[in-house]
Amino acid sequence: MRIDIISIFPEYFAPLDVSLIGKARERGILDVRLHQLRDWTHDVHRTVDDTPYGGGPGMVMKPDPWGEAIDDVLAADPRARPRIVVPTPSGVPFTQRLAMEYAAEPWLLFTPARYEGIDSRVMAEYGSRLRVDEVSIGDYVLAGGEAAVLVMVEAVGRLLPGVLGNAHSAVDDSFAPGTMENLLEGPVYTKPPEWRGHRVPEILVSGHHGRIARWRRDEALRRTARNRPELLAGLDPERLDRRDREV
Ligand code: ADE
Fold first, then answer.
1. What ipTM does the predicted assembly reach?
2. Residue 87's pLDDT is what?
3. Domain 171-247 - what CATH class?
4. Closest atom of ligand 1 to CA, residue 88
5. Whose alpha carbon is nearest atom 4 of ligand 1?
6. Does position 211 have pLDDT exceeding 90, yes or no?
7. Active-site annotation holder among 64, 101, 105, 116
8. In the chain, domain spans
9. Rounded distance, CA 220 to CA 239, Å?
């Protein structure tokens, strides 16, 4: 998968050299290209922002540098069409489902903004030709979209074939479509069997795989009820069994 990121802080993306995503890049699974937005300005101050029409606080990112930058990135492969992802707190929620959708795309272009956001005509311009998603990673406001891009690239990158060591480890993720949809993962344990007087739940060392699966499902339901009760309403009744209803 190819990922382009245009930002006034390309150095913000140094963490993409590290760990799982860093390895995926080394192995050629992920091709990340960073671009400095200011390279597409033409004044001595390399200006990327201006005051908002209609008044109000803060500054808005000018359309010209974004348009030139995106045009140049698109020109790198005129036959291919990236999906453009614009991080903004006003966007649609970024979910595991959307991460999976992005993981199936050959090319993503992220356009993280600073200040009050990008002049909306940029999204209108490319939205008429390409898929442009305005996406929020949560109901809080960051100082800019860069941290949101790091979050999305990590969530998408770990889903790419060959990135996770164990082919099954993304299947049981919290929120993963299927049995974990709208469920949080329950608690996990490793050795030693007793630590500071706390014992590992007996069922997990029982060797009864069916009962262990049932216990994990119960714990997932319990944790979801405690931490995210609103998710329970989204559980598919067809997938609930009698035992689920008793938890
Ligand atoms: N930029 C600022 N806040 C954001 C958020 N919550 N999600 C995505 N981009 C953002």
1. 0.98
2. 98
3. mainly alpha
4. 9
5. 89
6. yes
7. 116
8. 2-157, 171-247
9. 14
Is 192 an active-site residue?
A: no
Q: Is the preceding peptide bond at 192 cis, omega within 30 degrees of 0?
A: yes
DSSP, collapsed to helix, strand or coil, labels residue 17 as helix
**Protein residues with CB under 6 Å of any ligand 1 atom:** 87-89, 136-138, 140-142, 145, 148
Tell me which residue has its CA closest to atom 2 in ligand 1.
142
CA 46 to mean position of chain CA atoms = 30
pLDDT tens, residue by residue, 136-191: 999 999 999 999 999 999 999 999 999 998 755 788 788 888 778 889 999 999 99
Task: Tell me if residue 89 is catalytic.
Answer: yes
Residue 88, pLDDT above cutoff 80 = yes
To the query of whether residue 173 is one of the catalytic residues in this protein, the response is yes
The burial class, CB within 10 Å (0-12 / 13-18 / 19+), for 32 is buried
SS3 call for 5: strand
Return the residue whose CA atom lies nearest to atom 6 of ligand 1. Answer: 89
pTM: 0.94
Residue 74, marked binder: no
Amino acid at residue number 30: L
The pLDDT tens digits of the residues spanning 108-136 come to 999 999 989 999 999 999 999 999 999 99
Question: 2-157, what's its fold?
Answer: Alpha/beta knot (3.40.1280)
Residue written as token pair 């348009």: 67
Tokens of 44: 């001595």
Q: Note if 236 is an active site residue.
A: no
Choosing from 4, 49, 133, 173, the catalytic residue is 173
Average pLDDT of the segment spanning 31-43:
98
Nearest to 86 by CA among 127, 34, 141: 127
Q: Atom 7 of ligand 1 has which residue's CA nearest to it? A: 136
